[in-house]
Design brief:
6-stranded antiparallel β-sheet; 3-stranded antiparallel β-sheet; Arc Repressor Mutant, subunit A; 3 domains; elongated
Length: 236
């Protein structure tokens, strides 16, 4: 977050713009500075209302716009839709990563984006006055949870008798891929390993209601997602 707000510094800056430092403006800046999280206008209003019951939502919006205009407050967007605006005091240039699952916001600094700004200005002769950059995805905690819950993906030759799976991708050259798909091995098809030949090759599967034998070299070209792991031990 930004450095501490000094009322006298703010007063001088507003005075240069022909504006006054009203109690409402100072209170808005103080609440934004003290906030442990990013606030939108309505969240800010709820906090302000606890300190000054006379303040209105319209006053909050009006003063936020003014404080943004003079550079004391900055708008932030944490989603591509830009439907929700967050506010924070002006400070060192930094950027935000938002976890699309848990909503966690991570602040970080980078020298790369200012380099892009300078390159744009040099190449096209423009002046960049504002940059809106957002990053989203999964934070490390949510990524770990998602990876733990993801179904296991293997190639068909790694399936075991009794295991069921869904076909994800069929590889191989075009002729072989076409032949395998004509045998029912298409994306989304459910397949189950039935048995393995005594010497380990070929392997028999059930797909679309009929049995199919494939060489392991062929089965190795098919990526599947395991849906049931009711493995039948060999010999049973």
């Amino acid at each position: 977050m930004a450095a501490s707000i000094v009322a006298e510094d703010v007063r001088r800056l507003l005075h240069k713009k022909g504006l006054r430092l009203t109690p409402q403006r100072l209170l808005i800046l103080q609440v934004l500075q003290e906030a442990k999280t990013h606030l939108d206008a309505e969240e800010l209003y709820r906090i302000l209302k606890e300190r000054d019951r006379r303040i209105s939502l319209a006053t909050v919006y009006r003063n936020l716009a003014l404080l943004c205009e003079v550079g004391l407050v900055e708008q932030r967007f944490f989603a591509g839709s830009q439907q929700r605006v967050y506010y924070e005091p002006h400070g060192s240039e930094h950027y935000h990563f938002t976890c699309r699952k848990c909503g966690k916001v991570i602040e970080f600094e980078s020298d790369l984006i200012p380099q892009v700004e300078r390159a744009l200005e040099d190449k096209h002769g423009v002046r960049v006055e504002r940059v809106c950059v957002y990053f989203d995805g999964l934070c490390s905690e949510c990524l770990a949870q998602e990876e733990d819950s993801m179904p296991e993906r293997v190639t068909l030759d790694e399936l075991r008798p009794g295991q069921k799976a869904i076909v994800i991708r069929v590889g191989g050259d075009s002729a072989l891929r076409r032949r395998l798909m004509e045998m029912g091995l298409v994306t989304g098809a459910e397949i189950e390993e039935v048995r393995v030949a005594p010497l380990g090759d070929p392997v028999e599967f059930t797909v679309k209601g009929y049995n199919l034998s494939l060489r392991r070299s062929e089965a190795r070209l098919i990526e599947v997602e395991i849906t049931s792991s009711d493995h039948i031990p060999e010999g049973e």
